[in-house]
Amino acid sequence: TFVTCSAADGGGTDVVSWWTSPKFWGGLGAIAGWGMTGSAIYDAQFHGPELISLSMTMVMIVYSTLFSHWAYIVTPQNIMLCACHASNVLAQLNQLRRAVQYRLSSGKQDEVRALTMRAGLGLVILSAVVAMSGPLLQPAIVNLDIPGLSTFAAAPAGLFTVHFWAPMSKWLISGASFFDLNRPTDKISVSQYSALTLTGCFFTRYALLVVPVNYVLCSVNIALFVSSSFHLARKLKADYFVRDSTGARGDKKRQ
Fold first, then answer.
1. Which end of the chain is more exposed for a tag (fewer CB within 10 A), N or C?
2. pLDDT tens-place string over residues 138-155
3. Mean pLDDT value across residues 20-33
4. CA distances from 206 to 31, 113, 219 (A)
5. Burial label, 143 (beta-carbon count in 10 A; 0-12, 13-18, 19+)
């Protein structure tokens, strides 16, 4: 499959393969992203709040906030991806509300209080770092002329840009999956992890086609694909292939 686009010099057209088209892979990534948003909406309608992970939900809020901004400023601009992440922020905030209400009604006030304090402290520290980094830290590091570090600090996708921090937030999702490899399968959402697996697949390629090229985004999506597909495989195996002593599969046991 090929797409035709206007040539940069205005003299004719360039033929671009789907493999090298950022709009093609960005579109697939946006569709997968909408799947992630849809999974949060679906889970809110059909799954109980006891399945919601507070830590993962908060990570998803930060992640989608950063990526909505990234999708708006990257070249080529990806409005569909921006809209899906903005919608996901709202969907995850609703999930957070449900999870907090459930834990409070279940007598888990200490858990909610501790998480709230950690989140508040993290927000204060992050706000202070963001406020100081641009006008103060970046020029200082660049002027120090430290090999590697100064170049990275001044790069278009460097340390002081959303091109760096958006994929770094995605490392929190991958890290949460890697450090929770033994998570009970009844607490794994098929819709959410299917969307994360597809997102990791599509964005691995998309990250190498946007401007500026984003190797951090590419690497984190490889990790996301591996970790999410691992959890998804565990969930599908437990629900549809593993039988108990009565011979019933996991999906039958819940009926």
1. C
2. 888 888 888 888 998 898
3. 94
4. 13, 39, 12
5. exposed
